[in-house]
Amino acid sequence: MKTNKAVKKAIQKKLYEMSFYEFFCKAFEVIEPSVPFSANWHHKYLCDILQEEAQRITKGEKKTKDIIVNIPFRSTKSLLVTVLYPVWCWVINPKMKFITASYSAELSIEHATKSRDVIFSDWFTNLWGEYVKIKKDQNLKARYENTSMGVRRATSVGGTITGQGGDIIIVDDPLSPQNANSAIEREKANEWYRTTLYSRLNNPHTGVRIIIMQRIHERDLSGFLLQENRANYRHICIPAEDSPLIYPKKLREYYQDGLFWTDRFSREILDDYKVALGSYGYAGQLMQSPTPADGGYIKAEWFETTYAKKDGVVNFIIDPAYTANQKNDPSALLAYIYKDNEWQITAVENVYMEFPQLVKHIPNFCQKNGYTSASRIFVEPKASGKSIVQTLRRETKLNVQEDKPPSKDKVARVQDVSATMESGRVKILKGRWNSEFLLQCEQFPASAHDDMVDCLVMAINKQLFNDKIVFFG
User: Which of 91-95, 357-361, 442-446, 459-463 has the lowest mean pLDDT?
Assistant: First the structure.
């Protein structure tokens, strides 16, 4: 009986050492015992590619290309690449050194901790406990080392890694969806990879950089690298649905009924994601194309025209211009009601006025469109905005407030709220201004003027991102 057990153990051990895919399937059960494992073709495909890289590095063979994998969220990408792959590499070569990075230190440490949990599991120690051991004096959450001098270092975008090197560098989602529309955050991630992380391979001729992520912006790290230096990367793109972006093209044969993974991403589930994420979120995070196939940031059909004004407090957004010169941008004024988790735009207009005329016009616009003592007037603090707030406070009894200055560019701000607009939660009251407003929305960001769009975004942000405003009624 003992002999049979020993033979079975030896066979299993050899199988897992010969196949990262077999190791992954078993280790999944160990690390996620309460989650039923649903194998899909991409697991085997990616495991085989990663296995080839580890074996090549172990033999000291020259690298051909680094790797970029674009794949939807919830596709076990982190578990496969960032958690279990480094563990399996230590099984075949415990001297390997890893640097793994994600957009946050918390997430990077979580991945590294899960890897260590596998190493400490009964299953792993029973098979490789005498071979792969974590040093007691080198066992931190963000950095640990085994007795063969193999190292796992977890860091985050922007983190310091001076003096650290790796045989394999893994970047797993370097940018969060929440920061995707921030040009500052995007450039921070791209610059950190280019100037800090890129040079950290112990041997640039054999070591490999692996980037696995969902696409969330045209200039995210994948977009940046593929645009700047595509020839240096082996690109694997796996959208949730059949698409011209599938790459390599031969992967299309694995799609069933046009779907990448029917168990995880059924038509019903994808339809739900389309509503929740909006066109842009769905196009990037699921389809790996940060721009929707039909283009356009804002669609006129997203706005239902209503014929009755809502019963609620009217608030106002003012986007002032610098001058009355019609070659420049006009000032925009917008009135809206927020109630029952919906916005109703009740009036919008563009005007070309110098400061004195604009200061007189704003009270008239507000009074004409339903201003009450419960209303608020928010003025964007650009151009003459600060002076407008000061003058109206001094010369009127209007409740006027200086709005927060925007921290993102115009396109990013629109993308932040596009899912809200697409969901049908923004209505427009029937009026003569409708056609001009809708045309400017549809032409954004190529329209000659976008001030009405600025006002619209400001109005949505007041509620969507929990500005501390008191609304009555």
Answer: 442-446
Task: Give SS3 for 136.
Answer: strand
**Residues 6, 357: Cα–Cα separation, whole Å:** 91
Q: Which amino acid is at 245?
A: L
- CA nearest to 190, candidates 166, 163, 218, 162: 218
Distance from C-alpha of 67 to C-alpha of 233, rounded to nearest angstrom: 5
Instruction: Decide if pLDDT at 366 tops 90.
Output: yes
> Within a 10 A sphere around the Cβ of 138, how many other Cβ atoms?
13
Helices (H), 32-79: 41-59, 77
Q: What confidence tens digit (pLDDT) does each residue in 423-441 have?
A: 999 999 999 999 889 988 8
DSSP symbols for 326-352: TTSPPEEEEEEEEETTEEEEEEEEEE-
Angle CA 446–450–453, to nearest 5: 115
Q: Is residue 338 within 8 Å of 310, Cβ to Cβ?
A: no
| For residue 248, cis peptide bond before it (omega within 30 degrees of 0) | yes
Nearest to 297 by CA among 312, 311, 283: 283
Its pTM stands at: 0.72
More confident of the two residues 278 and 465: 278
DSSP 178: G
Q: Please, are residues 462 and 420 in contact by the beta-carbon 8 Å criterion?
A: no
Strand, helix or coil for residue 73:
coil
Distances, alpha carbon 397 to alpha carbons 124, 308, 367, 371, in Å = 73, 29, 12, 12
> Which amino acid, one-letter code, is at 238?
I
pLDDT at residue 326 greater than cutoff 60: no
Q: State whether residue 171 is helix, strand or coil.
A: strand
Between the alpha carbon of residue 404 and those of residues 262, 378, 386, 465, the distances in Å are 45, 9, 11, 12
Specify the amino acid at residue 351: V
